[in-house]
Amino acid sequence: MGRASAVAAMERRDRQVAASRTITRQDFDDRYGDRLLALPLDVTDRDAVFTAVNTAIEHFGRLDIVVNNAGAMSSGMVEEFTEAEARAQLEVNLFGAMWVCQAVLPHLRDQASGHIVQVSSIAALGGFPSTGMYSASKFALEGMSEALAMEAAPFGIKLSIVQPGGYWTDLYTSMTTTSPLEEYDPLRAELEKQWAEGSIDSEPPLAAEALLKLVDSEDPPLRLLLGSTIYDLAFDISRRRMETWAAWEQVSRAPEHAVPAPENTR
């Protein structure tokens, strides 16, 4: 999706810094010329992120749009994750995006403008079997991003969270898996049956078109859903949550009765 967005931007003659762990200048058409700067970058390396951002500023003089698209996925039941596997999921999807934001914010503040786009996921709408840690990383990304949007707004900086449905990217081919516990074999069999019913994933250039419309907007939303499937799912999940909250309203409201702050005691 990141590559599709980069190509779409280059085709309309934007200037682009394309950063990825495996990227080279040869990955792109020669006709893009000096409008494209390709930088190899592992976003889990905080120092490398700051160096890359400084290099981009030196090359182009400014940054206007920053898209945090780097992501990784590890599949497995929550019980199956080792500590190292769980932390690795957060390193890319949460901390990688956080380091990029920290690196670009001083520059965006100085120019009193900019738009940060955080690419989240359908998994941030709710937890699903076998994607619990992936959902955890995206929930965390969105919580951090909501706060950052309010912190950055006074400086003229915009932030949008993009929640894509399924797209045919290398997220699936590079996905890692946990060592399975046999107790979850029946659930895995049921999930495989559901997945075998057919693809609902789309081509990344469709997402790229939507991203360009987002960054061109004078008043971009905090959240943008990409795809009919995730659009319908978002409303369905929201309705069910509201129904549950309403059903438990009396219990929810009961344990609140404001009292003065307790005096300090020694």
Folded structure, characterized:
This protein has 266 residues and is an alpha/beta fold. It has one domain (2-253): 3-Layer(aba) Sandwich (Rossmann fold). 47% of the residues lie in helices and 13% in strands. It contains 8 helices and 8 strands. The protein has helices spanning 2-11, 46-60, 83-111, 132-152, 185-195, 204-216, 228-247, 249-253; strands at residues 16-20, 36-40, 65-68, 74-75, 115-119, 158-164, 176-177, 223-226. The strands form 3 sheets. The protein has a 4-stranded parallel beta sheet, with helices on both faces. Strands 1-2 form a two-stranded parallel ribbon. Helix 4 (132-152) links the parallel strand 5 and strand 6 (158-164). Helix 1 (2-11) packs across helix 6 (204-216). The longest helix is centred in the middle third of the chain and has 29 residues, at 83-111. The chain is globular. The N and C termini lie far apart (59 Å). The mean pLDDT is 91.
According to CATH, the homologous superfamily is NAD(P)-binding Rossmann-like Domain
CATH class: Alpha Beta
Shape annotation:
globular
Secondary structure: number of strands: 8
Low-confidence stretches: none
The CATH architecture would be 3-Layer(aba) Sandwich
Give the count of structural domains. Answer: 1
Strand content is 5-15%
SSE string: HEEHEEHEHEEHHEHH
Main sheet? 4 strands, parallel
Helix percentage: 40-55%
What's the end-to-end separation, in Å? 59 Å
CATH topology: Rossmann fold
As a whole number of angstroms, the C-alpha radius of gyration is 21 Å
> Which structural class should the secondary elements be placed in?
alpha/beta
Strand order of the largest sheet: 3-5-6-8
Task: Quote the average pLDDT.
Answer: 91
Number of helices: 8
